[in-house]
Fold ABM domain-containing protein.
Amino acid sequence: MKILEKKFNAYISSQNMFVMMADVNLKDGAEEDFKKWFSESNKVLANFPGFVSRRFLKANDGSYRIIVEHESKDTFIKMHNSPEHDKLHPEGHSYMSAPPERKTFSIIAE
């Protein structure tokens, strides 16, 4: 079992890592506000057991993607179905021109 990193005094193994990627389309002029919301919402979501990271990326072509890493699918689902997540979600979606296109992954090799 390979140790990826130490986070919140827990060692995270790549063996069960769960990753969600979402392609995001933002409304014109919404990038700065979305970035602020994203950083603030990370302060809440980072407190969930199993949380590893959550990043907002911008490609050279101007497209956006969110990557969320959790220790397992179960910890991701618990966070995703939580009242805290439900409270944060509407504001994040208010900056988007369409719902995010999500895909989930499990790490199978390194």
Q: What stands out?
A: The chain has one domain: 3-106. The domain at 3-106 is CATH 3.30.70.100 (Alpha-Beta Plaits).
